[in-house]
Amino acid sequence: MEWTDETIAKLRTLWAEGLSTAEIGRRLNISKNAVVGKAHRLNLPARPSPIRRLEGDATPRQAAPKRTQGPTLPPLAASIGAPMPALRAIMPAAKAAPRATPCCWPIGEPGKPSFHFCNAAAAAGKPYCEEHAAIAYVRVRDKREDAA
Prior knowledge:
Largest sheet: 2 strands, antiparallel
Shape: elongated
Number of strands: 2
Radius of gyration: 31 Å
Order of helices and strands: HHHHHEEHH
Number of helices: 7
Distance between the termini: 47 Å
Strand content: under 5%
Structural class: mainly alpha
């Protein structure tokens, strides 16, 4: 955008009228930031921020609304019409003895009746079977190898 003498004069006039930078931008068909930048370069008088409070302004701020206790959304099962399985059935106990675990690779789309987990025997120390672990864990290449 090129600032002509005419647009600068219009900017000065609108600024003096006290219009917001957004409104001046709309009237001059430029961005608000262009208005702010040019006003700064022209050393136009600063105006109080609409956000900051003036010193000595004793008007109390409105308190933030209280947060709702408990869940704010209905259970997923209620929205898809299927009964929700108990959490204990999905998650093993935290202090359960180590045992063979099934692969927990998701297959299908959650919420659809065909959705399930792989359930093959998981690899040692991993939540997935060997096949899915090969997909999930990709070895990071050393960037120095590419430089040679």
